[in-house]
Amino acid sequence: MYRILQIMFLLLMITEAKAEDFFYQEARAKLITGKVIDENKLPLIGVSVKIKGGTGGAITNAEGDFTLSVKSEKDSIQFSYIGYKTQTISAGVTGFVTIQMTPRSKENLDEVAIVGYGTQKKVSVTGAISTISVSEMQKVSTPSLSNAIAGKLPGIITRQATGEPGYDAAAIYIRGLSTFGQNAPLVLIDGVERDMNQINAQEIESFTILKDASATAVYGVRGANGVILLTTKRGSVGKPAVTFRSEAAALHAMRLPEYINAGQYASLMNEARINSGNSPTWSDEEIRKFKDGSDPYLYPNSNWTDAVLKKDTWQTIQNLSVTGGSDVIKYYTNVGFTLQDGIYKQDNNNPYNTNANIKRYNFRSNVDINLSKSLYMQLGIGGIIHKGNYPGWSAPDIFNALKVISPIAYPVTNPDGTPGGAATYLGWNPWARATQSGYTTQDRLNLQGTFAMKWDLSSFTTKGLSLRALFAYDRYTQTDNPRRKAFLVKRYLGKDPISGKDLYSTPFQEEQPLGYGVGGYSNRAIYTEAQINYERSFGKHSVTSMLLLNERDYVDLSAGTSVANLPYRRRGLSGRTTYNYDNRYLVEFNFGYNGSENFPDGKKYGFFPAASAGWVVSNEKFWKVNFVSNLKIRASRGLVGNDNISQRFLFLSTIRTNGQSYLFGADQQLFNGMEEEAIGNPNVTWERATKNNIGIDLGLFKDRITLQIDAFNEDRKDILLRRGTVPDFAGFFPWSIPYGNLGRIKNKGIDGLLEIKNTTSKGLFYSLRTNFTWARNTIVENDEPSRKYAYLSGKGLPLLQPLGFVADGFFSSLDEIETSPRQTFSRPRVGDVKYKDIDGDGLIDANDRIPIGYARLPQMTFGFGGTVAYKGFDASVYFTGAAQTSLMLSGTSMWPFFDGAGVNNVLTEYYDNRWTPENRNNALYPAIDEGNNPNNFVNSTLYMRNGDYLRLRNAEIGYSLPKRFNNKIGVSNMRLFINAVNLYTWDHIKIIDPESNDGTGGYPLQRSFNAGLQIDFK
Description:
mainly beta; five-stranded mixed sheet; globular
């Protein structure tokens, strides 16, 4: 805090000094005139001419001429135009100036791309990679970075199932699913494996995903699921530049659950009783009391959603960064603060907070030091302090209570203010779970340290040869302090007819004071790497090589057993060689030779090679298509692995000494026996994925239009799974059946990106961007036993393909029941679901289940949007969506009275669309029953919903203040902006979010309306 105050004081001094100098600078301002021409010496129209670091400026006219007012000869003038290299000249020039712009196709020769363990010139990249700008990510105001990239990168598939603070990160997959086990990509921040959801977008310099084997082979056994590379910002030569970004958002809970009221619920109970041939439970008078609220404690109408949840909350994200340096030392520092509040209502009588919220403090400092002309040192330190607060019960526990406790079960609170309750489902009062059960705090501390050195050996040995070494130490500690308590549970019985006092049952549960618990988790990771690089050009020939040795040592410091406390170790050798002839013909070879302690001796290491090639057709001499500025064809093939195969040390057999019990001796005493706990597999190994990719990069009209398309397929073999073909009579306990590398899955698809950018002669900038990803996997081998019918087998189906019965309407009469195939779940009634007899045997049983719908993870995701900017104003909008995905809308509250009449809450969706004699033709759900109806409560097409959606993901409007005004207040640039996230969703589900998990919903996603400003001080 003291340092921040010092910086603020310094900024005030700078502001005052600049204000004093403003009129003096105005007096000595001068005009610079000139012309801008292209490579053919023809005038360029619409070139942006401005003072570097400012927002004001000029635009060249139809003759390419410009006039610009310059306040100081120390300023720099910047010329930029789509399709051309940005150029800069000193404002101290005299006379009429002529600027000849260089086409971007030549500039691209020097642009670099982030690749595995290094960088490459973009023109020479032959692998499948995708990037996104930091400014694009910042348009989505979120504490979790994974939510900022949804639908914005080809090859990325995401799904955010919850909006709970601290747990709202989206699941990320690169090109879909390819294994039964762990499908998450490897995430590296500054080359070290770390959590991307714990850093701020403000800290990021670049965000890259590596998709094919050519790009990920250097990661060997970690590369099969793809790799995400993030680099954090570093300093640059210049005086201290301070950037302050502040934003605050109002959050609105989307699609809170809607349940029926007490009058509807009581009527539904009567309807269920009548359908079962019994007399009604409630009289008309009692139902009237439930409806009109005349006796709210004996005939309650508890709106649990309204009692527990609020619709609106808030969040704020603050960042302050300082960067600068000299030729010797460069530095970048950022401090950030994030706060997100939850949607639980609170009891003001509590002296503590029971709402969910997080407070996160981020710190990052990157320092680069030139120790000599050839020796460089880097030091990076990051710290993340995360403080979370939650109710005594977890979010799933609270939302399950909302689904279970009916509106007539009991009032939210009794007349004396104590929680309403009953002897059944003791302690399930949703309001009391959220407000009267204490609270839990979570403290997480993540320290990240990175030290690297680079030694350029060009002047000692061979030109282009360098050495690099890196050491990283990360420490993570989480401490949980649950302060839970039991709340008083008693039932209100009415008033004493004589005294008029309130009567209560004997307490079913006594109130307890706040308890105290402690739990936690901690780990540490040490990562080291040593690297030798070579980069050299010989005329038209360019060669690069890289050889790297690395090792990671990870220890679970809070492990409960000595085996779990053993270090997780990986060691590997990686290499890459590229050859580029005249920027036309490109060849690349990558490999990873990696080992893991998780495999037996002699089989710990594996070799994972990949090769790729590219042809830049547009650089050929015969290429005469002028409007095609870039055309590159790429292809790759390689082998990568995945060693994250669930259990550890599967090559070892273990014995359980306290196994099954047996009776021995004449008196038949019971003794514990010994048994095989796990049968080792001496041949266990990692998964192997053979990946193929072919792609095309196209640039039109000097790269105003760019297109990238990749088609891919993957054959993942040796997937670890427990044997499914071992028969019961073999004598193995189910838990001791050995694992084997038997699984096989194929995955194929296509992803692409189209972008259009241009600046008109009037200075209007616009861009349009769209991307899509389609990936479909198929199970080839899962070691399942033979099935009676082919359609019952998982082979040939996608991973996590749902199975269910095909609903064929509802039974409308007893005659229809008698003449239909016999349904074996239970004796059906009129209004029950009727199913198709798939195998034609006259019975509806497990053999009639078939694949229905799609897997929960979408096979296709896409996004599209655009930006326009003119004279300081900018506006952008972006849509995202998913297709070929299904959601099973089933379970508690959609299967009413599953646990008995009067127990479960009922969604309005069911109530409004259930089968009744008056609603035979438009019914979507079966008639109500008194309890669990095994015939109706099974997964079927009746509850399957199309999960496709289109979402207006984010929109933003910003304004950058003119340079004249910025100078007056002593800043380099100031931008005001408002943006919104999750504005509107078009989908087929309506009652819960289309990204939710199967079921009937949980903690909802949030719609945010965010306002902020960014100030650059120089």
